[in-house]
Amino acid sequence: EIVLTQSPATLSLSPGERATLSCRASQSVSNYLAWYQQKPGQAPRLLIYDASKRATGIPGRFSGSGSGTDFTLTISSLEPEDFAVYYCQQRSSWLTFGEGTKVEIK
Amino acid sequence: EVQMVESGGGLVQPGGSLRLSCAASGFSLSRYSMNWVRQAPGRGLEWVSYISSDSRTMYYADSVKGRFTISQDNAKNSLYLQMNSLRAEDTAMYYCARDLIVVIPAAPNWFDRWGQGTLVTVSS
Fold this sequence. Notes:
heterodimer; A: mainly beta; 4-stranded antiparallel β-sheet; globular; B: mainly beta
């Protein structure tokens, strides 16, 4: 099973700041990686797939990069609605999720 | 508008059974592969099961294999998850989730639409 390790577990930032979230795979997943956002009491929302493609309706401040084992989700300037938990997911070998990074207001 | 509404969750004793449903609208299940994904309270996401759009291919996580069965009824545009021999560790919010793309060979991929979830609690 491919294990996805997300860091940091919690990121404390202010609105307007840049957020950089990391996801590392235990073995190469090529570019088969996605990012989801989940707010309390809501279902997850797909942000990025194939490592760098934005899903429909996702604002341009969200971007994804990386390949192989190291991936990054960047939020260029945090909006109040961006404070949430973010999960990465791979589909290279079956399907697994990371444990999540919580982006909280500083 | 694309919408998925889950139902069927509740409190069940260990060893019991439940059948979850996911009613889809705004799109046809016959054109999309579907999944069940669960989330234990305060925990992360876990993929549970997949069914291809033609219902010929099904996959299960090792944690539920042999106990859960996924199916769909295209006439009712609904997805189901029959859960038997339930355990405390099956306690979670269960979401139905639609695959973004079609891949060959058939396999779960990215989840572009989700229901609001139905809560399953396994406890005596």
